[in-house]
Input
Amino acid sequence: MKKAPLTDDMLTPAMLIGHISRAQRCTLRSRENDPIMTQNSCRAILFCLSREEGITQLELSRRAGLKPPTVSVALKHLEDEGYVVRVTDEDDKRAARVYLSDKGHALEKENDERFVTVDNEMMAGFTPEEIELLRSMLLRIRDNLKNPKGKEE
Output
């Protein structure tokens, strides 16, 4: 038996968060100028490196929330395209530190501008107070997931 499609009043907040997240990623992806940025892992890596360069591949994996093999493959693509460089750590020759190249910095600047544009489109019509209330509620949801059932860490 076929179920009826979901209507807006049937969507839970968690379902809406998922729908909004997917819609945002699709919108960002559709506005990318470089095909490499259609890969979410590459976007996450560039975002992390734009905030802190010179971290190891393992630390990058943790910060980006990606598995080490995923980071390894994505870094290879980013390196081949000239967006990142890996430099052997002076103190630990087994480790490589990852940096954005000039080309990577330029791409991340474009991505930041694109993200701000999409963010502004998403929040159009909301007052600053509504935005702050929504932000605080989403942070609580995130924290609830980190600390299930109210258990203290």
